[in-house]
Task: structure prediction
Amino acid sequence: MSYKFPLAFDSWDNDEKDAISEVVKTGKFTMGTKVKEFESSFSEYISSKYSLMVNSGSSANLLMIASLFYTSDKNKKLKRGDEVIVPAISWSTTYYPLYQYGLKLKFVDIDIETLNFDLRKLKDAVSEKTKVICAVNLLGNPNDFDVIKAIIKNYNIILLEDNCESLGAEFKNKKTGTIGLLGTFSFFFSHHISTMEGGMVVTDDEELYHILLCLRSHGWTRNLPDTNLIINKRLDNAFEESFNFILPGYNLRPLEMSGAVGSKQLKKFPIFLKQRKKNAEIFLEVMKDNFNIMTQKETGSSSWFGFSIVIRPNSGLNRSDLVTRLEKIGFECRPIVAGNFANKKVVDYFDKEVHGNLENANWVNNNGLFIGNHHINMTEPFKELKKLLLND
Result:
């Protein structure tokens, strides 16, 4: 089915296509100088010491969790069985690396307005067993990190950010993804910038950065600095060093073409973000007098990945009917991320706990949806949306 207003539009022009062509001419397609250039530009933009590109945002989440298992004995971060608090609504690959590394997931309800952690329930969920809080900045919207930091200040708890949907968001003038020990980003087609497939992990911690470098490429030492914080110093013998495996790694390297495209997209991103925020102003104006619908309450400065529509209790609206009507006028829509993930069949495999009830996550799961935001003006689509909603 084709839509007048799909979840995502192509944000490429000849700049990106020419960048790919230039890489093709070199005959060197795997991770190289173009990836390094993009990583450097991304670090500068995001104000992070280290940025490491991978082949997807999902891989970024995997490496973020994996890296915490291989720090030095004096700086040990995680072990199997440790407890990680997660919001009940996010994408699948927020949760899968936690299961894959034998961690215990504790699901906490979301705030029905912000769609991020319900901060009162988060505070109640934290205990001496908690080792990590994974804050997901949902649909571009930052968590309230002042409150989260106050909650964990008397505990030895690591704060991580799944920022895959929220490039460009800020909290107190600091870009999300850089507030925790590590943060992740996605550059999938529907995200703020697109590199075909691609993702990024950022951190200011040098040891974790070296671990990430190693894990990204087979667990070997070839991509490490000569002097590093894993093995101290690489071998002087290049032949012996070429296949020196020290960590149980992966092959999550991005293509050189993706790095080249990323640099082009990042230059355009300030314009993309400005338009997304203008679109948000229009959307919120259209929705402000509709008492049947809740929209996402902005915390800090959202980068507006998409626009949530949550039916209010007792409104009389039916989501299935609303989806049908939205699709009829050309809007592509989806459940809000993956809905309440604690209810998915796959969590039967997890070591898990549900803290309290998940009433807000359940409501959003059954009565919420989102439509896309874009780097182009959406005045006309929202006129159509207003006409539709005036009939409710």
Summary: The longest helix spans residues 256-287. The first strand starts at residue 50 and ends at 54. The chain is about 35% helix and 15% strand.
